[in-house]
Every structure is written in C-alpha cells, then in structure tokens.
Known about the structure:
- The chain has helices at about 1-10, 15-20, 30-35, 45-65, 70-80, 90-115, 125-155.
- It is mainly alpha-helical.
- The chain contains seven helices and no strands.
- The two termini are about 35 Å apart.
- The chain is globular.
- It is about 70% helix and about 0% strand.
- Helix 2 (about 15-20) runs antiparallel to helix 3 (about 30-35), helix 2 (about 15-20) crosses helix 7 (about 125-155) and helix 5 packs across helix 6.
Amino acid sequence: MNSNQELLIQIKDINKIQELSSKETLNNSELNEMALAMGFESYDEYLDYTKIQKDLLISLNKDYNLTNYDATDIYGVLYVEDENVAYRRDCGSSCDRTYRNCMGASTAAAFAAHAGCIGLDPTIIGGIICHGAALAVQYFVQDECGNQGLSCHRGCIK
Length: 158
C-alpha cells in the first residue's frame, strides 16, 4: 500500500495514463509514454517496479486469497475504527475522519483492483493497462477525498 501511495505522488500526467489505459493494446512507444506519465525514468524501470509489486501481490494472494475479497472486506481489515468515537469529536475531527475513511476506502478498492489485475500480468500489456486504469481511478477518487475534506472543513463552525 505504501508503494502504491508513493506511485500516486510521483504521477506526472494522469490524463496520459487515463488515455493509454483505455486502449485495448499499447505499442512500445505508448508503453514508454505510460511509464513516463507514471513518473518512471523508463519503461524498464516501470517493469522492475511491477515485477516487485506483482510478486508481492501473488505472495499475499497465496497467503490470504485476496481475490476472494472485495474492497469493502479489505477496507474492514485495514481500517478498523471504533464507531462510537465519532459522537465525541468536533466538526474538524469529523472532517478529518471523513477524509481518512475516504482515502482508506479508495486505497482498499485500488488494492482489490490491483489484485484483480494479477490474471492479466502474464500478458504484460494487459496487466499494464489494468494496473494503469486502477491507478487512474484511485488518483481521481483520492483527489475527490481531498476536495470533500476541504469542503467539510469550510462548513465547520470554529
């Protein structure tokens, strides 16, 4: 999850990622464009990153059968919180909690999506497109989490 968050931060061109990940197949030039848009120096650097991530996902899937769980299940495991605390917090804390929960839900959904891409990884291009699409969706959802958090704080009475 940490590596995925770091990848989101290094994105150079989300629009290019979205454009390329919507295609059925990518040529060598487009594969390099995708890697550069994600913030990698080269396609080879991206392949090294994906190999490490794929091996990690395969290992986690082997140990925990991740593909049998949806994003809600994963969120429940990763982000357990005492619901009763919500009634004792002020507006600012509630906004922080809303933002944190939104980020957690989007991370869990992305984790589930990346786990779902494992089956396409052997095709290389299919895996890249699948992981790129998952990354693009996570990027926009987390941007909206930030937007909603700021909106919430503006509505708080100090």
